[in-house]
Amino acid sequence: AGPRSQKQLELKVAELVQFLLIKDQKKIPIKRSDMLKHVVGDYRDVFAELLRLAAERLEYVFGYRLAELEPKSHTYILVNTLEPVEEDAEVRGDQGTPTTGLLMTLLGLIFMKGNAVKETEVWDFLRRLGVHPTKKHLIFGDPKKLITEDFVRQRYLDYRRIPHTDPVDYEFQWGPRTSLETSKMKVLKFVAKVHNQDPKDWPAQY
């Protein structure tokens, strides 16, 4: 099938992640044959690698473990590994949308960067995870609106202009609701889980 560029493979992984998240909304086991037919197409020869990368991203970004339900029939389900920040439907959205994973990822980033992080850094970080400010996302809709407006309105994040910057830049900090609903320790544990490390590996934050 000829060599593929890194960018082509990245796009396939992102497509596969979105396909799995959408399929999972219906709570019906996902067939491998559907993945091959709808997403993988002529990338069949690298399917195992694509699935491995998609599974990693699902776990790290969204807190979902891709589990094989029945090896014989090759069907998969997503298992939620995150404790929700709270049992309130607002965070998860009506469909159980996995915005909690994204929120925890952002809170973790802000915390590890010393409690404030520039918006440009946030997007650089999220782009590596397949979430772009200008592209409509199948799960989050408009990611820029979700992060700079919805999470801010819900008071999970503070979003403010950094004075004397040209071009204008903004930064994020934890909002008041975050401090009430979750602890720095919980966020540190989440970050540690993502990086496969122990919270004690970051002595300053610990």
Features:
206 residues; alpha+beta; Arc Repressor Mutant, subunit A; 3-stranded antiparallel sheet; globular; MAGE_WH2; tumor antigen
Layout of helices and strands, plus pairs?
Blueprint: H1 6-25, E1 30-31, H2 32-40, H3 47-62, E2 64-70, E3 75-80, H4 89-92, H5 99-112, E4 117-118, H6 119-127, H7 143-153, E5 157-161, E6 170-174, H8 176-181, H9 184-195
Antiparallel strand pairs: 1-3, 2-3, 4-6, 5-6
Explain this structure to me?
The N and C termini lie far apart (49 Å). The chain has two domains: 6-80, Orthogonal Bundle (Arc Repressor Mutant, subunit A), CATH 1.10.10; 89-201, Orthogonal Bundle (Arc Repressor Mutant, subunit A), CATH 1.10.10.1210. Strand 2 and strand 3 form a beta hairpin. Helix 1 crosses helix 3 and helix 5 (99-112) packs across helix 9. It has nine helices and six strands. It has helices spanning 6-25, 32-40, 47-62, 89-92, 99-112, 119-127, 143-153, 176-181, 184-195; strands at 30-31, 64-70, 75-80, 117-118, 157-161, 170-174. With 206 residues, it is of the alpha+beta class. The protein has a three-stranded antiparallel beta sheet. Residues 9-206 form the MAGE domain. It holds the Pfam family MAGE. Keywords: Tumor antigen, Ubl conjugation pathway. InterPro entries: MAGE, MAGE_WH1, MAGE_WH2, MHD_dom.
